[in-house]
Amino acid sequence: MSTLITRLFNVKYPLIQAGMIWCSGWELASAVSNAGGLGIIGSGSMYPQVLDDHIQKCKAHTSLPFAVNLPMLYPNIEEHIHTIIKNKVPIVFTSAGNPKTYTEILKSNGITVVHVVSSVKFALKAEQAGVDAIVAEGFEAGGHNGHDETTTLCLIPMVKKMVSIPVIAAGGIANGKTMLACMALGADGVQIGSRFVTSEESSAHINFKNAVLQCKEGDTKLTLKELTPVRLIKNDFYHQVQNAYEKHATKDELKELLGRGRAKKGMFNGDLKEGELEIGQISGLLDEILPAGEIVRQIIKEFRETQKSVQKISL
């Protein structure tokens, strides 16, 4: 399977595992890379020394390319940049900020840079900043998202039409059929998050994994746009947020309610009531925990089977 993305990253399949906070450590990243995809370490929940440890362990468990996701909002980002360069990480995915800030220094150190966007406007800005590829993430995605609520079905062809660099689709992708659909829309590859949350190697708490598997249609909602939009499972904390909205809470009051450590409490420590449980709409389709390598294998198998069945359709 050869696309602009497989050639850019030197991987077998154009399938990227998203760098999700509290879920994407070295075990998951190395397993996905060993299976032919591109594994990503999610650095947003890591202290600099912890990231250094994860990178070194990932390198010890795979000889294949892997990446680090670097949220631009991270408070000690300069230390993360130093750690990434020191360890010669081949690929970095930046997100939640201005790609212009660190793209030049990363590329000058031989690192391939990808930036995550949620709109055509920011896709163009990322291209102008000199990134090598972009992830166009639709409204369906879990975690932090865009304000405009543009769905993947609409976003991918609009972005692909406007940029000349490779485009990776994200949001609402969990199997071979959704992967093929996104590539039919023009994507050169796909990034998958929620499906890998429910992998054996994911560092998410088992309580959170099981909560994801129990999700049905409508069990997640994009909220907290005043701070930074995030898609959450509707648990007790989510309902506290909704009650705050009904009382016309100010931005500062929402910040106080969110507090610190909510995401860790929910996704890493397994507090399903008071924790922040970030997951995508596609969670309603997930029903089992599997090894990451098996997830990759199943996705590629279904992709190929669906591709053949579509070719047989006559109009």
Short description:
With 315 residues, the chain is α/β, with parallel strands linked by helices. The chain contains 14 helices and 11 strands. It folds into 2 domains: 4-204 and 290-311, TIM Barrel, CATH 3.20.20.70; 216-282, no CATH class.
Describe this structure in words.
The chain is of the alpha/beta class and 315 residues long. It folds into 2 domains: 223 residues, TIM Barrel (Alpha-Beta Barrel); 67 residues, no CATH class. 43% of the residues lie in helices and 15% in strands. The chain is built from 14 helices and 11 strands. It has an 8-stranded parallel beta sheet with strand order 1-9-8-6-5-4-3-2. Strands 7-11-10 form a 3-stranded antiparallel beta sheet, with no helix packed on it. Strand 5, helix 6 and strand 6 form a beta-alpha-beta unit. It is globular, with a radius of gyration of 18 Å. The two termini are 27 Å apart.
